Amino acid sequence: MAICYLDRDGIINHHLPYVGTIERFIWYEEIIEFTLKLKKYNYQYIIVTNQSGIGRGFYTIKNLLKINQMIVSKFKENGIDIEIRFCPHTPEDNCSCRKPKIG
Predict the structure, then answer these.
(1) pLDDT of residue 73
(2) Three-class secondary structure assignment of the chain
(3) Which residue among the candidates 3, 4, 6, 7 is catalytic per the annotation?
(4) pLDDT at 97
(5) Model confidence over 4-28: pLDDT tens digits?
(6) Which residues, 6 or more positions from 68, have their beta carbon under 8 angstroms from its beta carbon?
(7) How high is the pLDDT of residue 59?
């Protein structure tokens, strides 16, 4: 099975600074159609996203998890299983989980 990694901000939703609430999350509706087209190739989908707004104190992991649940539910409604991996750290933290690092 091949893996299709998708960034969140700018691919799944419109890129606004620090999207940490559902109210600020604006879908790119085309992403559902795109993933459905690739589904026939048996891709596993994983969203990877840096969320330094958590590390900066702009929003909480709890807020992010609400958004993540909404994303997973919308994909599931359309027959697509998707996993979300996120980094809550700031670039200055120099962690191993922040994109583009592989952790």
Answers:
(1) 98
(2) CCEEEEECECCCECCCCCCCCHHHCCECCHHHHHHHHHHCCCCEEEEEEECHHHHCCCCCHHHHHHHHHHHHHHHHHCCCCEEEEEECCCHHHCCCCCCCCCC
(3) 7
(4) 95
(5) 999 999 999 999 999 999 999 999 9
(6) 84, 86
(7) 97
Whole-angstrom Cα distance, residue 35 to residue 79?
A: 10
**C-alpha distances in Å from residue 56, one per residue of 33, 61, 88, 89, 91:** 34, 12, 9, 8, 10
Which one is catalytic: 4, 6, 9, 97? 9
- Among residues 17, 16, 29, 15, the alpha carbon closest in space to that of 71 is found at 29
Q: Which residue positions in the chain have pLDDT lower than 70?
A: none
Terminal C-alpha separation, the chain: 21
81 is catalytic: no
